[in-house]
Amino acid sequence: MHSAIRLVVVRENRGEESLIVPRQWGGGVMRTDIHVFDAKGHEVRTDFLADELPPPPKPYDFIVLGPGEFVGTHMGAAAKEFVNAPGEYEFVVEYTSYLSEDYAREVMKMPDMPFWSRARGTVTSNRIKLRVTP
């Protein structure tokens, strides 16, 4: 409970076309959100709220992922920010773009290729099992 939990989070383009994705991984709702479930399948709630407001995006805040390419980051915090007690847990990471397709095309002048916008929905990771000890 006194150590940090560190997750390696990766976005991979499994499609057949190049795809534009934001480089930033802002934590919180409508960006990168981490859900934790206890051994009974109930979502764990803590006092920690990961919700950072991203700055207005610039064109250099995006990258093009070719088919099969990926981009990743390390995300983590103290165990007590994810769980309330020692035990077996499952972690799920969800990613939702905070930008609309219209904003990306009209304001950001993104190139004419697929862009992972808010309209495309949420990408959900596999469940990762972790044992948290005292």
Brief sketch in words of this structure:
The chain is mostly beta strands and 134 residues long.
Descriptive report:
The protein is mostly beta strands and 134 residues long. 5% of the residues lie in helices and 37% in strands. The chain is built from 1 helix and 8 strands, in the order E-E-E-E-E-E-H-E-E. Strands 3, 6, 7 and 8 form a 4-stranded antiparallel beta sheet that branches.
Which helices and strands occur, and which strands form pairs?
Elements: E1 4-12, E2 19-22, E3 32-37, E4 62-65, E5 70-78, E6 87-96, H1 101-107, E7 122-124, E8 128-132
Antiparallel strand pairs: 1-5, 2-4, 3-6, 6-7, 6-8
Helix content: under 10%
**Count of alpha/pi helices:** 1
Please state the average pLDDT score.
85
> What is the terminal-to-terminal distance?
5 Å
| Beta-strand residue fraction | 35-45%
Task: Give the low-pLDDT segments.
Answer: none
SSE-based structural type: mainly beta
Q: How would you characterize the largest beta sheet? A: 4 strands, antiparallel
Overall outline? elongated
- What is the number of E strands? 8
Taking Cα atoms only, what radius of gyration do you get, to the nearest Å? 16 Å
What pattern of helices and strands is seen along the backbone?
EEEEEEHEE
